[in-house]
Amino acid sequence: MTASRRPALLLIFILLLTGCRGADVWRHTEIVPIQPGQTIHLRVAHAVNDRLPRMTPEQLDTLLAATRKTALEHFGVHLEFSEISETSVDVLLALIPPKVRQARMNEIYDFKSGMGDRKQLASGILTTLLERKTKLTEALAYARPYLPDTAAPKSLEEFSILLADVMLARLEGWRAIKAADGKPVLDDTPRNEWIFWDTVGYGELPYDLVITNQLVASAEYTAVEVHTAIRGGLTTGTTTFSRNSPYGSFVFWSTFPFTDTSAQSHALRGNEDYNATQAAELSGAYLAHEVGHLLFKFGHPFGQQACVMNPASLLHYRVWQQQLDAQHCRIGNIPEMQIGAIPEIYNANWLRMAQQP
Ligand SMILES: [Zn+2]
């Protein structure tokens, strides 16, 4: 799954806060026409956190081959990747313009210091539920297997509080995982913060696709969705604004959920681990989902299991892949598979800040 709809939800949240004063701050990027059979060149980086397990060059080749194959089958385009530039997570995140980073810091729920505001987190979740016109019974039916047995929320307000509690408890689960050096995977740096990854494209980012071994898991006051909450704020990947990409967006993609063998990852994957080849192949196949957002701005046909753009449930990547069927999910056949279903948006103020010397 991806958090790529978060910017749109963020927009709505901000509009609610400002009474539409900021309506003209958010703009769409252009949609670049792509012909069937076209070859698309993507610039690829591997941003590495040395403290965490990483995929080998062979695994990365396998990963990208699976992305290429899946994108050809489902979207009819030929992907051509650059040589993979290796960089570090810290060097990459340092591309974020300081003023833009500052403008977004108050979106982050600080779960490390204990200073986060749990009520505000729940109310942010409620805002998202209301915006999506969520029906309690349907959302509960979806989330029930992943909630405590005793949970019985009677309103969306109660459901939001429950989701905030579940999210923070699972986030503590991610926090408990230790790296090979014996220290927590989620350390005191902001490397795990979704907001940072979501902002790097406002800087001079020279890549269209950034693969990373970093665990991206965090909580935000803006636009947390049900599926993100029940995964404890974990993000597999996101397609989001990039000022330097011909497609107006770039993709960041975490391999951690595919390679990690902690009890929490094992459980969220449906009680299985993947071997090295499976992790690379499944990660690559699911990365095609982000390529669908990147190139075509497709939406999410929830429950249409034949479609690459149907998000995986929790971390059940294998089941997701087994259900794919390109013959039964054609571009344009359903609203979410229309080109431009979710245009990329950006904040013009942040872009202006980024371009100031
Ligand atoms: Zn998505």
CATH class bucket: Alpha Beta
- Average of the residue pLDDT scores: 92
Residue fraction in strands? 5-15%
N- to C-terminal distance: 36 Å
Describe the structure.
- By secondary structure, this protein is α/β, with parallel strands linked by helices.
- Helix content is 40%, strand content 12%.
- The protein has a single domain, classed as Collagenase (Catalytic Domain) (3-Layer(aba) Sandwich), CATH 3.40.390.10.
- It has a 5-stranded mixed sheet with strand order 5-3-7-10-9. Strands 1-11 form a two-stranded antiparallel ribbon.
- Strand 9 (237-241) and strand 10 (249-254) form a beta hairpin.
- The chain is globular.
- The two termini are 36 Å apart.
Looking at this protein, list some descriptive labels.
357 residues, alpha/beta, Collagenase (Catalytic Domain), five-stranded mixed sheet
What's the layout of helices and strands?
Blueprint: H1 6-18, E1 26-28, E2 39-42, E3 44-48, H2 57-75, E4 78-81, E5 85-88, H3 89-93, H4 98-104, E6 108-109, H5 118-131, H6 136-143, H7 156-176, H8 194-199, E7 209-212, E8 219-220, H9 226-230, E9 237-241, E10 249-254, H10 256-259, H11 263-268, H12 276-296, H13 317-322, E11 345-347, H14 348-355
Parallel strand pairs: 2-4, 3-5, 3-7, 7-10
Antiparallel strand pairs: 1-11, 6-8, 9-10
Helix pairs in contact: 2-12, 4-14, 5-7
The chain binds zinc ion.
Zinc ion binds next to helix 12.
